[in-house]
């Protein structure tokens, strides 16, 4: 192992996956100087010691040094020995089955471990590799151009904002990280190469969640929150300012601690394969995973691997309960989520009880040595450095370990309070007083939603060009090939048959008599693919007093919650507009976080008159703003109302005027009819007809209800 300081080598790529200048040496903030975030530091260390753990997902609010810590980790990684001139960074001591091989007696060299940063907009071709178009068109050779997975082999692959990455790319990265190989079968290329990468993803949950299926594929997960301790926060600022003032001097100050971390990582990586995982330790891991009711067996495997890595990091030769506890805290929280509104976290009291349930209490506990075999290296470290103890802990303990309350938890009193909204006037035209615009005092209630159901799917008509998702049809970078084009608008792949077809008629004029086809730049054709896009789904919710009657508001919230689950699964952005009393409010600006939408919905009060016109106008204003921010994301408006309009002068007339002009706006709209009772006035039906919107009774929002209606109709037809 090299004893010299190891600079952080970072490979940066633009949104199309092209290198912006190759490897560059950066002056990174030292890993040993980072204050707090102990769980994140430990998770990064464990997956570095044993890449088979499966990577780390870091969830946290903005400004918590997530990216800083990941980039700093590269500087303490040991150098790696690679085969000279191998494009895939092969290990000369292993049979890598390299496409550039065999490497018998090939010269080798030492180089720093790489940190490859993957942008959110990278294409699949640049991630896995693809046909070398230059050689294919110029020389007619089928040659493979390595992608980012080859660049990151035996190093770190870092994806910031991984929750915004296309789902199929996340699946692809996790598959490669789990298998340790990347296999490409496309465009006439058949290549398989080693891709042992340490995958690290960071995300801000406020910007959207990963699906549970993808969460499960990450080995470890960590929640990062900023400390609320003033002294702790002051130390963070102090070190950051010192680094900004003189990065070189600051790095020199922590160089001894950095070298100790590098040496310890090297020793732990060499030791992990020999760490013993006994039968009792395996039984304990199985008991813990079963006790937390996690799905599948991946949790057991990851916990076992992480426990061995932690034992190696602490200098032990055998896994102990402490190792299992640490591993379970990092490997299980994200695997307990059953729906997008479940808060991540782990019941540590239950974990302790499961660990103490020894199936053989009279047998000896296989405790390994409690001291680090490499010596107590933390005793002589500077108090201001990021100390690492024998138990694998880092620096100062964080005091922010509380779990986030469930977004779908109780929202308060579910009873509907009395309202001054008159329910005996169907139109509500006489409920406003032009000379007295103020309303009578009313009691505001908060209804709690019930359990969500599988909702009916609503889509936007036509073909869009928005971000990839799972709702409406669109021209996307991945999907079914429907044609070809000359214009390169972004992520299209080569359409080889169309390119050959375009070049074939010109072979004679290009002087070809036999042999390979002769291509020109004008011959290149790119694929046009059709897939699904995500949309902007705006929920415009009538929260007036009439909605509180007969527990209707609880049913409305349940329907919206179910539609939110559908929006989560289809990768949409969602916003919530509430209208009640004298006006309408954007209570949740459009966001990718359905958890935030669920919290907003649960706490949404109801009561007062019905300002339907104001609700529609606020919806229109929100759509206009969002179109400026993202012109390609098509909106879907879902209005949940009973059709009444009672607030302000000429309330119903104004609402109908807006509704009549609505079709000219080109907005795909669904009116969910919330009117209840035996005698219905059909106001929501009239509203939907004026708006050119799809009318859906509240009872038919559930997908199962639609199926039942069809079955009943089919059965009735057969009986007739």
Summarize the structure.
This protein is α/β, with parallel strands linked by helices and 720 residues long. Helix 20 (651-661) links the parallel strand 22 (635-641) and strand 23. InterPro entries: AAA+_ATPase (IPR003593), BchD/ChlD_VWA (IPR041702), ChlI/MoxR_AAA_lid (IPR041628), Mg-chelatase_DI-like (IPR052989), Mg_chelatse_chII-like_cat_dom (IPR000523), P-loop_NTPase (IPR027417), VWF_A (IPR002035), vWFA_dom_sf (IPR036465).
Describe the structure.
There is one protein chain. This protein folds into four domains: 38-225 and 246-260, P-loop containing nucleotide triphosphate hydrolases (Rossmann fold, 3-Layer(aba) Sandwich), CATH 3.40.50; 273-338 and 345-356, Orthogonal Bundle (Helicase, Ruva Protein, domain 3), CATH 1.10.8.80; 474-509 and 518-533, no CATH class; 536-708, von Willebrand factor, type A domain (Rossmann fold, 3-Layer(aba) Sandwich). It is globular and about 85 Å long. By secondary structure, the protein is α/β, with parallel strands linked by helices. β19 (573-580) and β20 form a beta hairpin. 46% of the residues are buried. α13 runs antiparallel to α14 (348-356) and α20 packs parallel to α21. A seven-stranded mixed β-sheet has the order 2-1-6-9-12-3-13, with helices on both faces. It has a six-stranded mixed β-sheet with strand order 20-19-18-22-23-24, with helices on both faces. A three-stranded antiparallel β-sheet has the order 15-17-16. The termini are far apart. Residues 1-20, 354-450 are annotated as: Disordered. Belongs to the Mg-chelatase subunits D/I family. Residues 536-672 form the VWFA domain.
